[in-house]
Amino acid sequence: MGDYVDRGYYSLETVTLLIALKVRYKHRITILRGNHESRQITQVYGFYDECLRKYGNANVWKYFTDTFDYLPMTAVVADKIFCLHGGLSPSIDTLDHARNLDRVQEVPHEGPMCDLVWSDPDDRVGWGISPRGAGYTFGQDITEQFTHINGLSFIARAHQLVMEGYQWQHNKSVVTIFSAPNYCYRCGNQAAIMEIDDSVESCSKETIHDHCRLYVNFGILEVFFVSLIYIFFSTAPNLILPHAMRVGIKVHAHLITFCENTCEVYSVHSAFSH
Predict the structure, then answer these.
(1) What is the pTM of this model?
(2) Per the CB 3.0–4.6 Å rule, which of 34, 143, 169, 187 could disulfide with 3?
(3) Where are the transmembrane segments (predicted)?
(4) Is 254 a catalytic residue?
(5) Is residue 81 within 8 Å of residue 129, measured between CB atoms?
(6) Domain definitions of the chain by residue range
(7) Active site residue: 27, 36, 97, 254, which one?
(8) Residue 95 has pLDDT above 70, yes or no
(9) Average pLDDT in the 132-161 region?
């Protein structure tokens, strides 16, 4: 759900893998845009410098930031879960408003596109001025109004560091999921991922949380593989990943083939072939 770069020493490798996954499994992965998928932000927070350091020029940075312009801003899972990076906008009342945005551009400094990647949920009611200097804060009343109008169960978003990896707010109508463990190599936070099972399509709004599982306390290697791969293959038949992964959760058998393919692309030895 955004911010694939400016998050450590390996932003370039992370976003390269994501694009490779999208090309290889285009119908199984949706890459949403975050506020760091922009030219201005990446020149300040590290991705631009990383590209210069690893490639000697800014060409790769330009290719990626041009690609970022085409990333979708939002996604809806099973007509019930609204996914985005930041939060809601006072300029967007319906899903159609979000779909009709002219997103193929640099993230502007204000307006609905900016709000979707910069806004945050808040304990106060109504709209508020964001301390970030972009986007808004929005209260539970705003969340409930938006989900009611659009027939949604809850909003899933990222954008904010939460120490336990995830945090429910607004009477469990908003969940923040943060998947970068030990953020900036110093925060000591846990990371989380969410699994949504197939039966979510037929469940009611009252029972939807029973069909969404949050996993926490992953290390860097676990999140690297699990958050990018596990959710694509989370249906039966199941198996347990090898001890090399040290994860202890069930994933689809096709994951083994997928990991082999990924290792082949990156010319590394696979721990899954033994």
Answers:
(1) 0.80
(2) 34
(3) 214-233
(4) no
(5) no
(6) 1-71
(7) 36
(8) yes
(9) 97
